Amino acid sequence: MPFIDCKLSRKLDGEQKDKIKRRLGEAVRVLGKPESYLMVGIADGYDLYFGSKKLENGAYVSVSLFGSATSAAYEKMTGIICDILGEELGAAGSEVYVTYHGVNDWGWNGANF
After folding, report:
1. CB atoms within 10 A of CB 69
2. Backbone φ, ψ for residue 95 (5° rounding)
3. What is the pLDDT along the chain (113 residues), one digit of tens a residue?
4. Core-most of 15, 24, 26, 64, by most CB within 10 Å?
5. Is 110 exposed, middle or buried (0-12, 13-18, 19+ CB in 10 A)?
6. How far apart are CA 24 and CA 73, in angstroms?
7. pTM over 0.90
8. Is 77 in contact with 63 (CB distance < 8 Å)?
9. Is 29 helix (H, G, I), strand (E, B) or coil?
10. How far apart are CA 61 and CA 8, in angstroms?
11. How far apart are the first and last CA of the chain?
């Protein structure tokens, strides 16, 4: 049950959002989770600042998943996320923050896992 929430400073068109969603769907396997349960949120045109500088191609990506994964898997996922955003948006890795949140109680379809 992963959820990848992307806040991106750059405005995107539908095709760009679809590419990012598709690539994140492939990447989530690194965390031992299936794409079939993945939810992705993309908020574009989001004001992000690093220090006092407004980021033109910045990103904050929050990855929540039922249970947890290893530190090595999280590190690999961070690299993949930075690669995706670099290739699709021109975002530099230094302008991308990624956080991970393991969740013990996750509800879906009227019940909890």
Report:
1. 18
2. -110, 15
3. 899 999 999 999 999 999 999 999 999 999 999 999 999 999 999 999 999 999 999 999 999 999 999 999 999 999 999 999 999 999 999 999 999 999 999 998 999 98
4. 24
5. exposed
6. 14
7. yes
8. yes
9. helix
10. 8
11. 9
> Cα–Cα distances in Å, from 24 out to 56, 72, 85?
21, 18, 10
CB–CB of 30/63 below 8 Å?
A: no
Query: What DSSP character marks residue 109?
Result: T
What local confidence, expressed as pLDDT, does residue 1 receive? 82
DSSP string, 55-86: PSS-EEEEEEEEB---HHHHHHHHHHHHHHHH
8 Å CB contact between 12 and 22: no
Element (H, E) at 8: strand 3-8
Which token pair is 62?
């929050």
